[in-house]
Amino acid sequence: MAVSKRVGLLVTCLVDLVRPSVGFAAARLLEDAGCAVAVPSQTCCGQPAFNAGDRRTARRIAEQVIAVFEPFDYVVVPSGSCAGQVRLHYPEIFQGDPAWQPRADAVADKTFELTQFLVDVCGVTGVASRFSGRATYHDSCSSLRELGVRLQPRKLLASVEGLDLIELADTDVCCGFGGTFCVKYPEISDRMVGKKATAVTATGADLLLAGDLGCLLNIAGKLSRDGSGVTVRHVAEVLAGAVDAPAIGTAPPAVPTPTEAKP
Amino acid sequence: MSARDQVLGAIRRALAVTGEEPSRRKIVADRLADHPCGVIPARGQLLPAARLALFQKRVELVAGTVARVATAEDVPAAVAAYLRADGLPPAVRRGADPRLGAMPWEREPSLAVAVGASAGDDLVGVSHAVAAVAETGTLVLLSGPDNPTTLNFLPDHHLVVVDAATVAGDLETVLSRLRDTWGQGGGPGGLPRNVHLITGPSRTADIEQTLILGAHGPRRLHVILVGEP
Amino acid sequence: MTRAATSDTFADNARHALADPALQGALAFVETNFPARRRAVVDALPEFEALRDSARDIKAHTLAHLDLYLEAWEARVTEQGGQVHYAPTAADANRIVLDICRAAGARTVSKGKSMVGEEIGINEHLEQHGIVPVETDLGEYIIQIRGEMPSHIIMPAVHLNRHQVAADFRRVHADLPKDRDLDSAAALLNEARATLRRTFLSADVGITGANFLVAETGSSVIVTNEGNGDLTCTLPRVHIVLASIEKLVPTLEDMAQLVRVLARSATAQEMSVYTTITTGPRRAADPDGPHEYHVVIVDNGRSAMLAGEFRDMLRCIRCGACLNHCPVYHAVGGHAYGFVYPGPMGAVLTPSLIGVDRAGALPEASTFCGRCEEVCPVRIPLPRLMRFWRDRAFAQHLPSPVSRAALAAWGFLAARPWLYRGVTGLGTRLLARLGRVRGRFAWLPLAGGFTATRDLAAPQGATFQQQWRQRAASGPERPRPRTVPSGNPHGRGSEPLVAEPRAAPAPAADRPSGRPRPVAVGEPERPRGPEARP
């Protein structure tokens, strides 16, 4: 194997806090692709502050991310939204800053969304996991439009044995998550995610996948409230064959839960 | 300070310029003098026969109709045929265009041909286009005594005669010809009051996005294309 | 002054809109109809993306030299016998138009569709002074008789269905037979056509907008489909053009480039029915056309936009594609935005015109999904410009104290990794414990809006970073068992779930060939996907 790529996994705050299994799945996929994966101490990419107009906080957090991740060959993110923040918006935040702009640009250039990195940088053409079922895939707006990620996850999913991928209608339409948008304008957000949930159900798929946990939490929340039987997972979990954690927003099987595993 | 100075001054302050910079003035003067073309779609760049075919197809795609005749002498008969086919009374109004005037209207003795602008009570107007654009099926008409603007809009049926030799592939070719004819600052002092680019009959989709022809202008647009390429 | 706005109550407006079934039915049309039709017409022109670049460059070039193009254009208008009037503000524009109408002894004014006319409230101003303005674009006519603002910049009455329009026609056209049939859009159009034909023929002054002003020729250009704009500028004795300063383009060729992207983006047409280039009043020998041609060139805040980060917005050619593709617009329609410019373009433009203190909710009401920018024919970075407004709103302390406090708390934590680790580690474990029975919450404090209609997934347990460090500490880094982390509280048992090494992918026989590497892994014997659902 060639000299392995040293990858810093920017796991994203949502994955860190809500769904660590996505982080492990991402790490596994990267390792399988021959990368040496490290998880430097991290918090958030700063997108909430940036999108709220709080440039100072956004900048402070961005400086921290840049400093922590610049030693790596690549920065890989299991989220189009956070990858887009680093790739597109960090250079914008530091534009014209002689000290920071080159550093922001350098980190931006080596930052990739997970499936984009696997396919475009590592040349992965398939995975060896199996999953029997019919799935549909939701493109997050940031992946699709900021990063141009569309074919990469589909290419990888096509190699999952037993997986039948059904395309969603209006796949370029937002699910209504939008970070703080879904809390600030919950009724509008709900109308948007309602349409998305309807589209998901209309595919007849029993599993919804996406590359962004924000969208997934939003759509899963709607599907679950509506009593839909569609389960929801991050695409990395299926690609890595790491589907033993309960699907998003579901509980483990009704056996007595063992005491929380602690070291 | 005049309102003019106020607006121009605000623009100049915003742009951080004085308006006297020779380099800026040259850029603007050059652009106005050279009027560079942008992106010209390949679609209209065809040999004459194919260009006419494209023109006809595009007119029909926008709900216009096309009749082809060999020479200008055949136009009155084509007009009469259109009226008969639509069950319209044999009366039209046209402008003073000498090309229309030279046509043998007397060969259609039952056809009443009025000349001049419309006051709104004509069912059929006949105009002569100065050019046409194959790319989009667009007719180009100029206002003036030859082809009064009211004839383009008030009658329910607008019949437009187009000389096949004037059908261009793209809009820029027509605009450039107009400039050559009407001058850019010189000559008769610029463009006529109106240059009408007409692509199909009038329409609206303002109610429930239902497309209906004949909103305020003609309900039908009929092109009589004269001559071979 | 600029027309009155209700943008400051956007959230309430939106709530009402969401609960209005007639409006929702109308919006469904926009959502399904326009994007597909635009896609088809764009796909039919291979040069479309290059034309968008060209259009963007033309507008950017013109804006950078706007003072000089304006002077060149003005000189040409004057040479052709037209008159140019500069209006620094909306009030100036209204006063100028009224003065021209009075000088012409006007009682009735026919109007072509003009967004800047809507912006400055010219109809209200004329009415206040005893002059009757009559909108002649069908959609504008409908909203005028309803006393509404346009809900869309291209299709002003898109929020209405034909039954609503029929009721308005029966109310306003009281002299017509009561039992007439108004069930179809065609019947409604015929009635409007007959009514408005009388207006065209009797109006003293015609007011139109302009899609472009051409510096080279001193022309104004209108792009329409109905023909009302041409009748408006041809039949009355006086033609007034209302145009804002950013409508300038250098040459006819530049206009041609913009026309190609405008119609396709606006109505999915290759070319609008009527593109009319108007230069000066009627000439001596002309048998028709107006005797006077005035252009009122309106600034009303635009020169200020030219100076800063909002200059890009002045490229806008008012096609409405951003509205047609906006999921927020699809949900709430145009009136919720509370001003004449709705949707993404309105979210950027309206704060410039009425202040971010009153319109700050509009740039907030976006998920930054970017679909607007993706279709903008002049490539305006609309999400970025909305974000600039959020920057300003934040700097002016406009967001609510609660949202500021929440953001500040998060920002404080996120900038202090050690503190973040402690707090989030505790928080996620607590939430995981609270939510472990169902794996989700039906209600959470501070997320009440979200959980009113959606469940919120519970965290899995310890944070990823905690688990990752535990894993690193508990064994050699590599080779590592294929495992789900032992810290996973939902793991079935406390043993790490170690997968058997997966059988190597079978060769060519039953698997696609050409896989470059031995790929991992999974746990084939475990229940997967749907079957694994609790």
TrEMBL record, chain A:
It holds the Pfam family CCG. InterPro entries: Cys_rich_dom (IPR004017). Residues 8-86, 136-219 form the Cysteine-rich domain. This is (Fe-S)-binding protein. Coiled coil: none annotated. It comes from Rhodoplanes tepidamans (Rhodoplanes cryptolactis).
TrEMBL record, chain B:
It comes from the Bacteria. Residues 54-226 form the LUD domain. This is Lactate utilization protein. It comes from Rhodoplanes tepidamans.
Automatic annotation (TrEMBL), chain C:
Residues 523-534 have a biased composition (Basic and acidic residues). The keyword Nucleotide-binding does not apply. Residues 307-337 form the 4Fe-4S ferredoxin-type domain. It holds the Pfam family Fer4_8. Residues 457-534 are annotated as: Disordered. Keywords: 4Fe-4S, Iron, Iron-sulfur, Metal-binding. SUPFAM superfamilies: alpha-helical ferredoxin, NagB/RpiA/CoA transferase-like. The keyword Metal-binding applies. InterPro entries: 4Fe4S_Fe-S-bd (IPR017896), 4Fe4S_Fe_S_CS (IPR017900), FTHF_cligase-like_sf (IPR024185), LUD_dom (IPR003741), LutB/LldF (IPR004452), NagB/RpiA_transferase-like (IPR037171). Gene3D superfamilies: 3.30.70.20, NagB/RpiA/CoA transferase-like (3.40.50.10420). Residues 499-511 have a biased composition (Low complexity). It comes from the Bacteria. PANTHER family: LACTATE UTILIZATION PROTEIN B. This is Lactate utilization protein B.
